[in-house]
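Dear Dr. H.,

I hope your travels went smoothly. While you were away I took the liberty of generating a structure for the chain from your last submission, since the lab meeting agenda had it listed for discussion. I wanted you to have the full record in hand beforehand rather than looking at slides cold. The sequence, exactly as received, is reproduced here:
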Amino acid sequence: MIPCTKTGCHRWFRNKSGLTQHVNVYHPVLPSVNISVPVEQCQESSAGEEHSQVLPDGYGDSGNPLDDPSNSNPLAEYVGPGDRYYRNYHPNLTGRPCDSLGNFLPAGHPAEPLTDMQPDDWSPYSSRLEFELADFLFTRSQMSAANINELLNLWNASLLSTGGQPIFRDSGEMYKTIDSTPLGDVQWEKFSTSYTGERPTENVPPWMNDTYDIWFRSPKEVIRNMLSRPDFSDAIDYRPFREYESATDSRQWEDFMSGDWAWKQADTISRDPATHGSTFVPIILGSDKTTVSVATGQNDYYPLYLSIGNIRNKVRRAHRNGVILIAFLAIPHMDKEHASTDAFRRFRRQLFHSSLAYILHDLMPGMTEPIVMWFGDGHYRRVIFGLGPYIADYEEQVLLACIVRGWCVKCLAMRQALDTDALYRSREHAEALIEEFDLKNLRDEYGIIGDIIPFTSGFPRADIYELIAPDILHQIIKGTFKDHLVEWVESYLKAMHGTAKANAILDDIDRRIAAVAPFTGLRRFPEGRHFKQWTGNDSKALMKVYLPAIEGHVPVEIVRTFRALLEFTYLVRRNVITEETLVTIEDAINRFHKHREIFRESGTIQTFSLPHQHAMKHYPDLIRLFGAPNGLCTSITESKHIDAVKDPYRRTNRNKPLGQMLIINQRLDKLAASRRDFSRRGMLEGSCLTATMQLFSTRAHSNTSEAPGLNRCNEDTDEAVDCPTSIEAHVELARTPRTYLITLSKLAAELNLQHLPTILEEFLLQQLDAYDNCDSDLPEWPTYGNKITVVNAAAALFYAPSDISGIGGMRREYIRSCHSWQNGAPRYDCAFVNTDSGLKGMYGLDIVRILAFFSFVSQSKRYPCAVVRWFDRVGDKPDTDTGMWIVRPAFTAQRRPSIGIIHVDTLYRAAHLIPLYATRPVSRNLKPHHSYDSFTAFYINKFIDHHAFSLLSDSY
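The corresponding predicted structure, in token form, is as follows:
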């Protein structure tokens, strides 16, 4: 038995690993802290700091938690329009408003004013123009200091002749103004640490003598800023809840606070009556190394990000600063001689965990006793913190959980048999194992690295095994799909056909992928799959088009394997997951496990004991715990790398870049906070020019009615739209006409449709409701002028919360129809048309190809229209193997293409079709713009995006 050597401790342990865990948990030695700031910073705003005190034991009569009106029964409320859904709210942690001292307020008490600043106070800027210029130069254009100086010199020179005053003299003055902004100001601090363990008597490795700096910002102050943001006030959940459909009492999961984990944490916290009425604030963390340069010096950085579980998934995913950079962790570098030693690996792991523990230590008091914080809705509330899910890829997960690589971080399944069912890991079980077994048995039998203690061990209610979040990007998209199945297809073809024939088949698959018709936002693969650096977006794009490309070249079992995986991926990516969806997810997992056996039976692979594929079976339970996984995916933190690490690095001079990156991030935060504040006070309405003209009482003529984005006809991107969720879908013609094509006869000639005027007359009769009611053989045809306005695109605005969208879930895409797209080949997109709104999915939709968008005036009314070619559905259900509907071009009784004119209001959104290639080889000369004209049958691509998947999955 081994005793604990700490004074006053009388614990004994069977082995060294048990002693190590005990010391790290109960007698931790934190690194000494050397706090510094990289540049001169302004003093932090004192408003709010005074309210951060821990509540006293006695709250007074109005603050007594026993006066909380909540009870042991959940609080039920209807939510959303039409009382279609209701929520049961947690009865104890109710997010009840209080005053600045923590005394609860009576129901209906008005919120305090968010600010006492006047609507013309631009402090620390002198005017709107000064702020807009600083924001444009630093945030949007990311202009260097040298270029800012050059621009300001030219601008100021132009003012000399008129006697005007310069806005900024130089970049230094602009930076000083930004730095003096009190909003969003959380200073960077630093602590240093080094190795303090045993050293060899000679040839001491360099890493044992090095000092490691960790830069961080107070997570409590970052959270304070997030909670106080008025623009988040309508997108924050103050209470854990469970949501149900009213008609069926079926539960559904969406945002984080709808999961069982938040509810169970609230149950545990509320055992202490002093916490009743508080707001539970789960801390979501994420970290991942990223590379910013491969040519100069140290090119790896290790950012740590923080979010809170109260903000909704749409905010976290919408790049609205719902995820904040709070630290740069240290990356110990070592030569090859020492990098693989056990001592260095152990130090590197413990450095990671010790750093996290220190960075988060200022949250510790607020995890057991409520503190008071100001919220963006104008109320104070008592807050209880708790460590929540950690967003990480598999390599980071094994580091976090102190697990041997190759084992599951969630359950105890053996490394060689991950397919078997096993119990979930837990903190209590792991601690018991560490006290009982030696390090070798822990590693071999349980996959536990017993001499490293997770950073969560010192925090209440924190179990790192439970807190590992699902990772759709690395586990499913890049791991199971790209690194496993796509590679297995290549190995299978070589095993079955030999290398030469397999390469010919793979070349044909690449030509099929390259020939896919263009679609808004779809990444192109002009040379197929053969390029070196794959990103997550590349893998996502390949998922959208890969299934039809391999059909005919591989057995149906492989096709069905891919279908099952794709359907699983798109199901777990939904923004709302119901009990019915969970059943469908589990069915997809079962089908995937069944059909993938062809790879083992063919000898392509030997085992399915792969952590990424094994992780799929945990998704149903993780959804119940944390809500929809799309709010906790590493794609969120990876996209944050660009704004917080990669772009700031590119703006540095490469000389000690980290300090410059910290300053850049802090200035970006201040500018963003100022923009939010000015917007909330209504100071940024209209353009800067119109506001200045109004200031000088000059009448400004400007067209402000145009919807944003409708003139972006030449950009092949879709976009998130921050507008209210008021419609399901709406299509509007672009505002830029093709001025050289102004007559119907010219359009008919261009499309080679000589009977187009007749089609237009029939359309007008239908619009006037005269066609069916006309008794004469020769009705009086409605009149219209020959002049028309032709445009190259229409904008479809629709509700697509599972895709990248605005906070309201709205998304805009562009439907193209032009004889020359971007000065190149023609492009005529396809679209869904509403034909029966009473039916679901494809049963109420048809497919058309847009040959032209135009509008005309008849009897003083403008008609926005589209000339379309119709498609017919093949069969009354999707294809059995691919799960996709099949369509083919429609023909009249005279075997002519079925052409029509429809009102744009009947259009729903764009559709993407992929040919049925079967076994037919694709010509090397086939280009994407040939795709719709070269084949006779097509799949409706339900994998083009998540909205299309949901739309087409509703059909069966």
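Two observations you may find useful: The longest strand covers residues 845-858. The chain has a mean pLDDT of 86.

With kind regards,
E. W.
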